[in-house]
Amino acid sequence: MGLLSAQDEATLKQHLSPITLPVQLVLFTQAFGGSESGDVAKEVLNEIASLNDKVTVVEKSFVLDTEDKAKYKVDKAPAIVILSDGIDTRMRMYGAPTGYEFVGLVEAIIVAGTGKIDLDPETMKWIQAVDKPTHIQVFSTPT
Amino acid sequence: MAAANEKITADAIEATEFIELSRKYRVTGVPKTIVNETIEIMGGLPEKMFVRQALDMPDETPA
């Protein structure tokens, strides 16, 4: 029994259908001293991956896989790093991706898997003009 | 935004899971956005307004 109803699965599958590029979801969890949300994150990601062949889940240990942790600059767990055809999209999710976070995750996967960003052309121009390191952190809650 | 420019990194953080971090940035309501430790954006904004604030662009002056 998955987290989603059959109807939600069908809807999600439809949303994921434009994906043409391989998307890797790299999940960092902490087995000991970590929270249960790592297990929830794993379940959510596996369920999404089961709906589209292009989406795969790669599990990493927050404690043991120090090289990957440094490579992706992951400083807390659970963490989800989204890769588009092996390339880091610089989009990260921290915590269990449920509720509103789930919607954000699906949108990020679609961006990674299609290479298409649904923003106004003028907004895109502003974003593309950024030439200094910019770190955006968005805090939200599942409900 | 991160997907559109390699200088940009975007983290979505579940506030109730990372309490210390939420305290550090005084997250009392969500969504709350922090850019480069200095810019704070409360709530959800329309796309253009959000991006201008996040990128510290001056307010648009009416033509």
CATH classification class of chain A: Alpha Beta
Give the percentage of residues in beta strands of chain A. Answer: 15-25%
- As laid out across the biggest beta sheet of chain B, the strand order is 2-3
- How many helices of chain A? The count is 5
Largest interface: A-B, 41 and 37 residues
How big a fraction of the residues of chain B is strand?
15-25%
The number of distinct β-strands of chain A equals 5
Order of helices and strands of chain A: HEHEHEEHHE
How many domains of chain B? The number is: 1
Q: Helical percent range of chain B?
A: 10-25%
The CATH topology annotation of chain A reads as Glutaredoxin
- Give me the Rg of chain A, rounded: 15 Å
In the CATH hierarchy, the architecture of chain A is 3-Layer(aba) Sandwich
* H-E order of chain B: EHEEH
Structural class of chain A: alpha+beta
Structural class of chain B: alpha+beta
**Whole-number total of structural domains of chain A:** 1
Mean pLDDT of chain B: 93
* Principal-axis shape of chain B: globular
Helix content of chain A: 25-40%
Characterise the protein shown here.
The complex is a heterodimer of chains A (143) and B (63). By secondary structure, chain A is an alpha+beta fold. Chain A has a single domain, classed as Glutaredoxin (3-Layer(aba) Sandwich). Chain A contains five helices and five strands, in the order αβαβαββααβ. A four-stranded mixed β-sheet of chain A has the order 2-1-3-4. In chain A, strand 3 (79-84) and strand 4 form a beta hairpin. Chain A starts with 5 loop residues before the first helix and ends with a strand. The model of chain A has no long low-confidence stretch (mean pLDDT 94). Chain B has a two-stranded antiparallel ribbon. In chain B, a hairpin with a 3-residue loop joins strand 2 and strand 3. Chain B is globular. Helices cover 22% and strands 24% of the residues of chain B. The longest helix of chain B is centred in the C-terminal third of the chain and has 8 residues, at 47-54. Chain B has 63 residues and is an alpha+beta fold. Chain B has one domain (2-54).
